[in-house]
Amino acid sequence: MQEILRELEERRASARMGGGEKRIAAQHAKGKLTARERIELLLDEGSFEEYDMFVRHRCTDFGMADSRPAGDGVVTGWGTVNGRMVYVFSQDFTVFGGSLSETHAQKICKIMDMAMRNGAPVVGINDSGGARIQEGVASLGGYADVFQKNVLASGVVPQISLVMGPCAGGAVYSPAMTDFIYMVKDSSYMFVTGPDVVKTVTGEVVTAEELGGALTHARKSSVADAAFENDVEALLEARRLIDFLPLNNREKAPVRPFFDDPAREEPSLDSLIPANPNQPYDMHELVTKIADEGDFLEMQAEFAKNILTGFIRLEGQTVGVVANQPMVLAGCLDIDSSRKAARFVRFCDAFEIPILTLVDVPGFLPGTGQEYGGVIKHGAKLLFAYGEATVPKVTVITRKAYGGAYDVMASKHLRGDVNYAWPTAEIAVMGAKGATEILYRSELGEPEKIAQRTKDYEDRFANPFVAAERGFIDEVIMPRATRRRTARAFAALRNKRLENPWRKHDNIPL
Amino acid sequence: MTTSRSEAAKPFRSLLVANRGEIACRVIRSARAMGIETIAVHSEADRDAVHVAMADRAVEIGPAPAAQSYIDIDRVMRAIEETGAEAVHPGYGFLSENPKFARALAERGVVFVGPPASAIDAMGDKIASKKIAAEAGVSTVPGHMGLIEDAEEAVRIARDIGYPVMIKASAGGGGKGMRIAHDDDQAREGFEASKREAASSFGDDRIFIEKFVVGPRHIEIQVLADRHGNCVYLGERECSIQRRNQKVVEEAPSPFLDPETRAAMGAQACALAKAVGYESAGTVEFIVDADRNFYFLEMNTRLQVEHPVTELITGVDLVEQMIKVAAGEELPFAQDDIKLNGWAIESRLYAEDPYRGFLPSIGRLTRYRPPEEFASDAEVVRNDTGVAEGGEISMHYDPMIAKLCTWAPDRDRAVDAMERALDGFELEGIGHNLPFLSAVMAHPKFHSGDIHTGFIAEEWPEGFSGVELPAEARRRIAAACATLQRIEEIRRARISGRIDNHERRVGRAFVVQVAGESHPVTLEAGAGGTDVTFEDGAVMRVEGDWTPGARLARLTVDGAETVLKVAPRIAGYRVRHRGADLDVRVYTPRQAELAALMPEKQGADTSKLLLCPMPGVVVHIAVAEGQEVEEGQPLCTVEAMKMENVLRAERKARVSKLHAAAGDSLSVDQTIMEFE
After folding, report:
1. Between 20 and 30 A from A256 (CA), which of A53, A61, B129, B479?
2. What family does this belong to (chain A) (predicted)?
């Protein structure tokens, strides 16, 4: 009997060694942790329950029959993050370079099925050389199976990808379909075709890091939501992200004890808006002064900086924030910022996370670059996302809300639940100067007249009260009271129920 | 001693404060307490300023630049007329020592809360004031004012004065035509050299000689005089901690003076005040050498910035006395009534970034939380300020943000109180000198009182780059951070949606990394505190009521009151304490093991980049891509705070890429160009 028990221990020990000491050392030498070490950091200490430890591949071609390590290059199972359940798969680069085989894919699919059934997020840790070439089409099929699971799980449970090594070719499409991607600087990269192919086909010379490194994807492509210095930081920040997210689409956003007065007043916000309307201010200050304990987890902070997206907590509960950032491009909407915010709004809506929208938007960015790039359809994504969202929506207009951008930014007309404005708000079709130049084109030669007309327009529309008269604004609030007012607004919306008409699915302008 | 203010009839109906910022607030505070209606003046930029909100009434007097508002006599006079102010307090700076202003007020029958114009006149001129002082029996720097014929006469005079002496060109400046001589030979050579230099540089070879005071201290006497012939001195202030003639830290009394010297200086200061018919509060500045010889420097005919330290050790409200004296009242005390009680220190908080050569910094105070003011028999914390959170530090005015003062029965405790008060001062949004002030407080020479006007220049010759905390302080921070982290982790583990009965248990073992050291610790939380055990068996108890998310941790660590500014960062905190700015990591032992496997990453190599040293606008790019530049060659001009700063090549290089063009607005550390 003892011997049988010992055999289990031996088999486990052997499986835990993955590709063996030498490969583990090589992994460390690259500044990377092993698949199991990563899981240890992601999950609460001692909480990991591993499945399919003894799965081996069934390939016999190209000498593969001689090498059938237990686990087959991916570690799967579940554990907890601060006591909440999370499923995880972690590719093991020390076993066949983490390459994906049919059985490797089956392991991933298995825990994704479990996650969907049991209502818990899936965290995928990617570190793989790609397809198991020896298996040919079986491996490709495996990829597609995973893709299909990603698609089905989307909007059912949160899916988070931590790309911590190579992820190239078709492999990129699994993380691409998850909700969030974290990458590690210098040791991870994602691209559809690598530098060698790029050089062969286009003659372009580029390094892997430049082509698909963490910074490239965090800053340029927006594929990544954040880039971290190393594995440890990425994993600890993934825990922080998970703390903001509900476990599945049937649950409310999590609540944790908080130590900040929901009625806290911030007198300094009364002077946040500069006297000069063309002077920018940093919207981060407003976000952090509204948030519990000033804690703001910003997503895609390095991309389309003219809009901020991320999570805060109010009274301990997660709230998604979308905010125009006047510091960058005057906070205007453009292709990138619309795409960034639209995807974020849809994530929040899918997972019952209330949305706080802070508005200071002068309009859409003009120009051929934008029009040729399809700003019409990209801008429509954000409009669409807000319009279809049924979660509690609270909006605060701090300064400019001009033109179509006013409508887009969670306006009353898009079923905003509570729409506030600061006394400094200017809700109008456009800025006073632009408006008078159109309305009084014939007087353009007379600067004095135009100045008077501009002033008239300003007096009429550069305030929140015209909108408030129509009920487009529910209340004009003191800036200093913004935290209290928004917290109370969301408190009043806790039992909100709103459903969109039945349909197979909508047809957002992708 | 304190002066009673309740029974006295109010000296004026209304008082206009012709100033801004902290001093305007300071004056308004006393005036209000006396029941006087207060009137503020302000520029366009100061509409929302604290002093405007504090005053009963406020008048806008002009655009932001002080020349068109606060120091424009006509505009200030108009405000006075409009409001019918009965008296005017000028504060310091601006119009406070402008005799024209004092006369303009007198002409209109408005009371100037300050000395008579004649006294301002008399003390306004450096040479004339020295003569008056000498005539009044005030000791002045020994020297020869007349012309010196030849080297031998120079030697004779030098011997009379006593070495070392300074030989100076009469028309000199900027160190030219200036020599220090320690003996006859040096005096001879110095005279000839100075004369030659003076002739060639200034076309004026007149030379004079005076005593050279080695390592002088700056010590000043506060006087208070009324128009009934009474004059008292309220002890001294030591203001030797200066940076480029800008006072940084002041204290009262001076750790250097003995009662005899103090009495002698006080008597001379009063004699001078009487000689010029002084009324109101004034300050006589002296330099003091190592042998306690003191020499008159100048007299400031106004309230000094650093007056609070005098108030703290004498209990006299100087502003109140100034107002009463201006109304013709007699001083309510005589010299014998003035007792110096305890020790007071003032730290001037400036919007200057010590890590960047004390460059001025402007912007919004996104966070401004000074330590709480309080007064007890054991300690006083006082913060004179004119800003609030959300306020703007503007380029138009003085970069001083606040004057933080502490008082305690003795100097050590006053310094200790200041260190804690600085630790608890939260300030974000702009660069500021808080860490530098902490560094001064922690300096052994400051502790021992061994200071002189060259202290900062000598102790930080290369500028300020932060503070390295002693090992014991680092351990206290480690113990504190482990405790905070555990509290934070316990909160994290109480999130909703946990699997019942399978909750996370937060461990007791942590590894804290501070300044390159690793401290494995074990925590034992008990009633009222956490015992943190280090590897060597030492135990530190951490007590406090910190809650997760709070940015200020007021703790008692190992019996010592410890105030830390803590901002969350990945796996730990950014901790600011005693001038140090630390990235502290708090790991579980396993996390620490794995973190040790992570590669040390070099910060991005910026040696081949030209980075913008301050926020500003590019005026001009002087080079083109591909151009070879020599060391010292101008590369580009950046305008910041109305100053054009020319950035030069540090070495020979070739410009590979330009990242900015004329007209671009740059933030700090933004790349301007790259080199090959």
Report:
1. B479
2. Belongs to the AccD/PCCB family.
